[in-house]
User: Fold this.
Amino acid sequence: MAYFIVIYSKYFITLFLMLFLACGIYSLRYERTADQSAAANVQCVFLFLTQFSAYLTIIIRTQRMEYLILYAVLQILTLALPVMASLLYPGINRILLNHMCMLLSVGMIVLTRLDISKAVKQLIIAAFSFVGAMAIPWILKSFKNLRRLGWLYAAAGIAALAVVLILGQVTHGSKLSYSIGGITFQPSEFVKILYVLFLASVLSKDAGFKQVILAGIGAAAHVLILALSRDLGSALIYFTVYVMMAVIASHHAGYLAAGLAAGGAASVVAFRLFSHVQVRVQAWKDPWSVIDDQGYQITQSLFAMSRGGLFGLGIGKGTPGDIPYVETDFVFAAVVEELGLMFGIGIVMTGIVIFLMLMKLAGCLKDGFYRYLTAGFGILYIFQTFLTVGGGTKFIPLTGVTLPFISYGGSSIMTTILMFFVVQGVYVMRYDEEKRIEKERKKRAKRDIGAEEGEEEEE
Amino acid sequence: MEQKKARRKKNRELYLCTAAFLVLFTVMFGYLVCYVTDNHEEFFNNSYNSRQRVLAAQNRRGTIYAADGEVLAQTGTDGEGNEKREYPFKEVFAHVVGYSTKGKTGIEELENYSLINSDISEREKIDNELAGLKNPGNDVYTTLDTSLQQVAYDSLGAFRGAIVVTEVKTGRILAMVSKPDFDPNQIVEIWDRVNADTDNAVLLNRATQGLYPPGSTFKIVTALGYIRQFPDSWKNYTYQCNGAYVNGDNRISCFHGSVHGNVDFMTSFAKSCNSSFANMGMQLDREEFQNTINGLLFNQELPVPLRYNRTSVELRADSSDEEVIQTSIGQGKTQITPMQLNMITMSIANGGILMEPYLVDRVESAEGKILKQNNPKQYRQLMASSEAQTLTALMEDVVLEGTGRGLKDRPYTAAGKTGSAEFNTVKADSHAWFTGFAPAEDPEIAVTVIVEEVGSGGDYAVPLARRVFDAWFDRSAD
Assistant:
């Protein structure tokens, strides 16, 4: 039996993910959250089966019981928490929650296998983030003024980024983080939320040419500070989010062309100016000629994926530890090595379904602020996923950003959870609105029927 | 309806962004699947990939077999449990089988992936893991023929050079010898010494990597060029050979100053008359001749399974007369590998169609499951079948009346071409060439021989080829 599990679990894990995904894609056809609950229930089963078979394999292979505790905590978190959340807020979108939990679980599985102490740390941060994030839908509902803060968000964000630029610690040539009381923060992660709030707030007021340019100046300030901190991956994400939000808000696709041109020009300048940009481009174009230094990471990532092939080597059977910074920048390669490319693509698709849900939600919303907020988060999320997966696979140059939910990193996981709970807040508000309309309609219908009956009596 | 339309318009840009990302991801997924699976073996063999080391610790490298089942390379264990790669035939298969420590060459390199991996059942693997045993790697069955290889090896003796033997109808490589040689069992011990000795280049597989002037064997190419450009008149070709061809300052002599007198096309080829071929070369349209040359795989990637060197021959419309004359008789800058010459010979013997040469017949798991089976494959038609027939007739004549008479009156009819390639201006002994096939009426094998710095092809290369042919046909007669 143990043989059977160790050999075939990788196929089952892929199968469970695919079935999970199928439920997610199927649920996209429903307009209303309430209609999705059957699909959401089935998804929970597949989520459980994925986690169970992965951890069972790990525990059989390693024969270590501390993994069992980790598994138990993860299981409670990802199965009990959504139930609690939907009791607290009936309007919460359970498919979105399931997808978040699935991605988190995969991240945990990989981290458990790579470095158990990091896995524990990650799980603790994720648990606290989830609990804290529960308040967000309530905050969103209670403080209607959030939409009016506009430039205040930008000011706070720029300040936080500037502090890192001036006081921050240098990691791998980039200034990314600072420490308070022994805990290291990476503000460019948290500022993402403020940044999207800022753009949504400013653009929902007015999306004329002048306003788009004004917002652009605010955005440029963020991007510039990030570029000066040498965090070019984040700079690129901030830039892209601005361009796409401007296009969506203004209804002018022309901004996309302008954005591409400006982005292209900026890339050329960055290439000329920064030696580390040149290094990365070189390592992308031909990593084989610099395999000893700049090309080492990316080629190791490619090796890891080729070792895995379509269905992977099986959990614990690969050597993903060969890749430097595997748990942050190259986690996708580690996933592919042991669980296979099919599973890896399934994971990215899980993220794409989140993106599609968000864009669909944005399309349904009439209120500009929430509409842009949701779309902004969706774009932010999917573009970051694209950068890290594309960068780790030599599809595009490496930018060194994390894979949301899966990469190791407290700031990253916390930001992503908070971000999606803001979206949950939007779902909740829409649900409450629907409920209210329905109630009114029923009331009206009752009144109408009453009136008709009255007429009959008169006759 | 109106409402829906309005909503669609409102969301146009939203949909546009969504679609852009979907396209981007679709392209990336396609790229990923192709890139990762296509390069699987190449990545595996990269020395920076730890997979080889991981597997080497789990699996015992597989065995390489000859076509007749003899072991060419296997991994044995000494009393203390240390693994050692053993090559029972020592020097005989040194270059073609190669070695796997100190880098990898030959079949050890070509099939490294198969040899390191083990495709026994997963169940067996787990049993081995629990028992602390290594998994047996996959075994490689080659096309090599031990007795033919031994004959080729012995006949080269102490000479430097190479012999290639292939089966013309399938492309199977039956024997491949290169000398000077080394004992692959001792590769670690002799490594520094043989690498320091650049004069002998012991590790070089001369059969596929040795670049030699083709000498008169190139007249096959010139003859084909001439037949193509003068399809009606080549049969009436005559030339008066006075022992030399003079064109301005350029002067070409026939080998050892022979005077061939009045020669036609057949005789020019059979006697290997340099003067006559220089004369033919000068009549050729240079660009068209270059097309013929390229058509015989010069200046191109070759379908050769081992590491090889590419050749280069370049004639342009403005090439000097001297270049043209030198090229026509296979001297000057022209170079060829024995393997490429063998491939040209194979195609002549097979009605113009070159079968892709291959060394590995199949790969089997230790449990006997066939993992890979190579079957004969056409590579390309190098010449029309009528052209192949004409060249065969010319090459038969070489054996009957010309420089290849050493192969006359055997139980089989051979066809071939000799060459005596001068490789420097000092009149030292030339490289001796022979390339040919037998039986001429229904060819089975092609044999290409080069012996370095000994003298004429007829004197030194033909006898070696004869021993190989004899060995092959003796066995067929049994």
